[in-house]
Structures are given as structure tokens and as C-alpha cells.
């Protein structure tokens, strides 16, 4: 596979499927933004949507501790920035990434940019690199297969046995019923809260944890609770209180010092006499 840049420049790209397992694992790690921290951007290359990143971001990803777990025991560890740059250059040689130049936005500011191959493929911190390797396609194939089977099953629904069709009907009615009950509870609790907040000092919530990030059972425990008032920030009041306390104690200390000093002077005077 090759991409042309200008009338004379041709960049040959190797087949990433033939690369050693270490580089495949490295590419999979970098494509996982949560682990590598790689910031992916959207671009358009030869009319196709692609993802690209900055060279510095890729090098930093290989220097993370999480990447050390990916490196096999018989493989030399990536410990320095030079090691990471070498691995990134090898990813380009094996056909995982391609250095590109950014062009104009295709749809205004913030949209994807047009990408063109760069004749110089060595890694640069400020360079941009496009992913050629798309990662494992197993999940994509499984998802596509499930989608086809779902559509096919829906189309053939009239041919299903009567028992299955009746079961699906009961299931759909049950799901719709649960949704109706949920929305009904939400409306009733809101009405009750509005009524109680008018006639009582504080409002009452039915199922106060209904919309909280808890389990299904915990969402309905407790049955009701008072509306908790918003806690005010008391951090700013604390220094003022401490200052007032100090100011109140200061005069007392100042008054006590002369009182203690007076008997001492009297004793010295008596001794001198």
C-alpha cells in the first residue's frame, strides 16, 4: 500500500499484520486512551475519517508505568525518551502510523482537518501521526453480526411460533409498565415535595435516592426523607472567628503582665531597704 505526496514523492507503508507481536501490543496500548493518555484527534485522509495524534503525546504514553506491563520479559524495557522515540519510529516502519501534515478544517473551526502525508517520517515531538492500524476488529464483527441477526429476527417476527410471539408481547408490556411506574413515581414525588415545602418548613422527598448513583434496591431506601438544606461554606468564617477570639484574649494578657510585675518590684524595693 502506498500514498502519493506530490507528483514525485511516494511513501511505502508496510503491512502491520506482519509486525512482531510486541509492536502490535504497543499499538493496542497507545490506542487505549485511558491507559496511554493519548489525545486522539479527528482528521480526513483521502476522503476517509481517521484518528491522529501528536508525536510528543505518543512518546509520553510509552514512558508510563502501565506500558511496562505490556512489554514482554524478553523485550528490552522502554526507560528513556530515546527508547520511546525508537519504538515510535519502528511503529511507522511496520505500518502502524504515518506522519502527516495538517491542512485546513473541512467544516469550520473545531472540525476535522485535511491530512496529507509528510515525506519525512522520522518522529518529531511537534509532528502529527495518523493511525493506519485500526486495532482488533473482532468486536466490530461481533457487533455487526448481532445487528444483522436482530434485524433479521424482527423481520421474521410474523413467522415466529405463537408461544414466542406471546412471550415477546408480555415482555414488552412489562417493560413499558415498569417505565410507566418509574415516571409515575417521579411525578408523584415532585408534586408531594412542592406541597410539603409550601406548608412545612422543609420539603419531603419520597424515595430520596431514586436518582442517585446507587444500586436498584438502594434507590428505594429509605421510603421518605426530609429535604436536606444546602450546606454553606464556613471556611471563610473560620479565620474571622479565630481573629476575634485572639483579639479578645490579647487585652487580658496585656493586663495580666503588669499585675504580675508589680509585686516583684515591691519585693526588690523591700530587700534593698
From TrEMBL:
Transmembrane portions of the chain: 140-161, 167-200
GO biological process: post-translational protein targeting to membrane, translocation
Compartment(s) of residence: Endoplasmic reticulum membrane
Bilayer topology term: Multi-pass membrane protein
Entry GO CC: endoplasmic reticulum membrane
Keyword Lipoprotein: no
Keywords for this protein: Endoplasmic reticulum, Membrane, Protein transport, Translocation, Transmembrane, Transmembrane helix, Transport
Region listing for Disordered, in residue ranges: 231-273
Presence of keyword DNA-binding: no
Low complexity composition bias: residue spans: 232-264
Pfam families with a match to the protein in the record: Sec62
Family indicated by similarity: Belongs to the SEC62 family.
Protein name, entry field: Translocation protein SEC62
Species this chain originates from: Phascolomyces articulosus
